[in-house]
Every structure is written in structure tokens, then in C-alpha cells.
Design brief:
- The chain is α/β, with parallel strands linked by helices.
- Helices cover about 40% and strands about 20% of the residues.
- Helix 6 packs across helix 14.
- It is globular.
- The N terminus is likely disordered.
- The chain binds zinc ion.
- The site of zinc ion has 6 residues, from loops.
């Protein structure tokens, strides 16, 4: 490691080198606000104009950042606009849902661009993982050694980085290791609702709030408590399984193996049960259709009201237990609230402890919608890359290539 060529030595940032920390800080500013000017970053970080210029020049040489001249504004000195480098590092992100998958790529600005999206031809683990692996391989072929992480959001309980079980996909333990075509590229696996919560806290409806609760309904209900931008995941990463709190009917057995799960009370399966319909094959689509018929069909309205009430009661319990500063609603949770707003509000209020009622946390729609899990998968991968070790590995790989 001590045989650096003159070229790579001039580009290296040693650990504990203050400019290395400065470089990370500059990249984090660019990530937070792509298109920010170098002058604004220098001011925020307390860097002199000369230091900022030197750091950005080195980051440019390392293909970690691109600079373009900023439009002249008033009397200030000319500056540049910072953005991701066109040949810079990327992460490949996958959102693996019950009905479909999407495969995307994102640079250091964290904005996922979807490359492939497709409904599952077959939800069986072997087939579905094989199809997604092909999409990841296409992305890795296209971006080569610029790919630093493959990060997967999956509709499943994730424990120690592996799928433990998934009621939505009908899976037990599944190894997603096959999703990475080259052994050198690290794989990150996270629960989709947890990752959507991460994204809401970083750049969505919970941005700026230290403690945020994200709750989403797809098939069942999931979510996470986020503290300072990080999910509270428990010892093995399998925490946040709010859907398996016993807020539901104790007479019903959940596919997870437990009794009385909240999951069964709040989604399309619950609406179908209250209407006397058979269990829907695709509870999301069924629920969406039912929410669209609330105005004209009294039976549907009654079923949706009941489900919205059961959802809001459970949510009140979570607020009592976790004391969030804001609650964000993802997936079908917000349309469900909108379709039965009075019932939702009453049930939420009834479930809150008295001292909370005067000042309950705001309950707001998630801002990132369907893209939340993809954004979150990108965010956790960039967290891992934007470290001294991550940048050093990138710099030495480039030096080796040159
Ligand atoms: Zn359950």
C-alpha cells in the first residue's frame, strides 16, 4: 500500500488529513443540495475560498464531483455549481415489491433513475430473484466499476442483512446474494417500509424532525421509527414490524405465524373480509378499487370506515409508545385516511393519551410516494460510500486503473 505512484499520491487523502474531512463535508453538501454553488458550500462549512477551490479541484480529479460555472449574480466573485461527476461512483438500487420490481441507478446526488421495471412473471423466490439479478447485471455491465454498492429494498422482514420471511411475497428465508454479479460489490438489503422512512426523514415530509414515525400500508402495514435520520432497527435489523402488533382480531391467524396481527385489520384483505368477499390475490389493487367506490357504495364505505378506524387506533398506540415529532403516511395509508377522514380523526384522537390530545404530532402524507423505498435504498448505500474508507477505495481503484 506504500507504493503509490506520484499521480495517486497527489490525489490521496490520508486518514485524519483535515482536507479529507473537508472533502467529505463538501460531498455531503452537494448530496444534500445538488446544484449548490461552491461559494455557498464554503460559507456553510467555514472554508476559505482558496481551500474550497483546492478541495473541489481534487474531488474533480477523482471524478467525485463536477463543477460548472455558475450564472453571474451581482457583485460576488465568480463561482461554480457542484454536481455529481459524469464518470463518478454510482449505486444500483432495487425495490422488490409484492407485484413487481424496479432497478435504478443513482450518483452522489442520490436521485434514482429507473433503468428497468417489470411485474413478476412468477413470485416464487428462485424465479423472482433470477429476474431481478438479470436487471442488476445489466446495470453493472453498463456502469462497470463505478458501481460501489447494490442496495435492495424488499417487501420482507430483513434480519442480519438477509430476508427472514415475507408474507407479501410468500417467501421464507431467501438469500439475495445472487443479486450481485461480482463478489467485489457489497450488497445491502433492507425492509422497504424502513427504507421509505429513511428517505422521508432525509429529503421528504419528515425532513428536519429529529424523531419521525413512518407508517405505510401495502399488503399489511409496515414502517419504522427514525431518530436523527437512522432507523431504529433492533438488535438484528428485524425491528419495526408494526404490522405484527396484536391490534387486530385475536381470532385470526396471520401468515407470519402470530395471532391478532394489525396487518390483517388495515389492508385490502380486511376490506374484502368486511364485505364478505374472498381474500384478494392482490390486496393492494383490491384496496385501491374499494377506496375509489366509497362515495357510491354504502357497503364499501362502511368497510373502509371500519378499516380506517382500526388503522388510526393502532397509529394512536404507536404515537403513545414512541412519541414521534411527526407521522408520515406512505402507500395506501394516506388514501385510506382521505377516504374516511372523519372516522380516522376520531379514532386517532380516541386512542391518544389525554395529555397528547392538545398537541398531537402532525400526521402528513409521505412526500416521496412510490419512490420512497428506492430513495432510501440509495441513501443507505451513499451513507456507506461517503466515508474515508469508501473514498479511499474509490481513489485507489482509479489510480490502479490509470
Ligand atoms: Zn403477523
Amino acid at each position: 500500500m506504500s507504493t503509490a505512484s506520484p499521480a495517486s499520491r497527489s490525489l490521496s487523502f490520508r486518514t485524519r488529513d483535515s482536507r479529507w474531512r473537508g472533502a467529505l463535508a463538501v460531498l455531503q453538501e452537494m448530496r444534500r443540495e445538488p446544484g449548490v454553488t461552491r461559494a455557498a458550500v464554503a460559507q456553510r462549512l467555514g472554508l476559505s475560498s482558496g481551500s474550497a477551490t483546492e478541495i473541489t479541484a481534487r474531488l474533480r480529479e477523482l471524478a467525485l464531483l463536477a463543477e460548472t460555472p455558475a450564472a453571474a449574480s451581482g457583485r460576488g466573485r465568480p463561482t461554480t455549481v457542484l454536481g455529481p461527476h459524469p464518470d463518478g461512483p454510482v449505486v444500483v438500487a432495487v425495490d422488490l415489491r409484492q407485484e413487481d420490481y424496479r432497478c435504478a441507478v443513482a450518483a452522489l446526488d442520490g436521485r434514482p433513475e429507473v433503468l428497468e421495471a417489470e411485474a413478476h412473471a412468477d413470485r416464487a423466490a428462485g424465479r423472482a430473484v433470477g429476474t431481478v439479478a438479470r436487471a442488476v447485471r445489466h446495470a453493472c455491465d453498463r456502469y462497470g466499476d463505478r458501481v460501489r454498492f447494490v442496495s435492495v429494498a424488499v417487501a420482507a422482514t430483513v434480519r442480519r442483512g438477509r430476508v427472514a420471511q415475507s408474507a407479501a411475497l410468500g417467501w421464507d428465508a431467501v438469500d439475495l446474494g445472487a443479486l450481485v454479479p461480482h463478489p467485489g460489490v457489497p450488497l445491502l438489503v433492507g425492509n422497504d417500509a424502513t427504507l421509505a422512512g429513511v428517505a422521508e426523514s432525509r429529503c421528504g415530509a419528515a425532513a428536519g424532525t429529529a424523531v419521525a414515525l413512518h407508517v405505510t400500508i401495502e399488503v399489511g402495514v409496515g414502517g419504522t421509527l427514525i431518530v436523527d435520520g437512522r432507523p431504529v432497527e433492533g438488535m438484528t435489523g428485524a425491528g419495526g414490524e408494526f404490522g405484527h402488533l396484536p391490534f387486530g382480531d385475536r381470532g385470526l391467524r396471520c401468515p407470519c405465524g402470530a395471532r391478532g396481527c394489525w396487518d390483517l385489520a388495515v389492508d385490502g384483505r380486511a376490506i374484502a373480509r368486511h364485505l364478505g368477499d374472498p381474500p384478494p390475490r392482490d390486496p393492494r389493487t383490491y384496496a385501491r378499487a374499494a377506496l375509489g367506490r366509497v362515495a357510491e357504495d354504502a357497503a364499501v364505505r362502511s368497510a373502509v370506515n371500519r378499516v380506517a378506524g382500526d388503522f388510526a387506533s393502532g397509529l394512536a398506540g404507536l404515537v403513545n409508545a414512541l412519541d414521534p415529532g411527526v407521522v408520515t403516511l406512505g402507500g395506501l395509508a394516506e388514501p385510506l385516511r382521505a377516504a374516511a377522514a372523519p372516522r380516522f380523526a376520531t379514532a386517532l384522537r380516541d386512542g391518544l393519551m389525554r395529555f397528547r390530545r392538545a398537541d398531537p404530532p402532525p400526521v402528513v402524507a409521505a412526500a416521496l410516494g412510490e419512490d420512497g423505498a428506492l430513495h432510501g435504498a440509495v441513501a443507505v448505500a451513499l451513507d456507506r460510500f461517503l466515508t474515508e474508507e469508501g473514498l479511499a477505495a474509490w481513489a485507489s481503484a482509479r489510480a490502479g486503473r490509470g
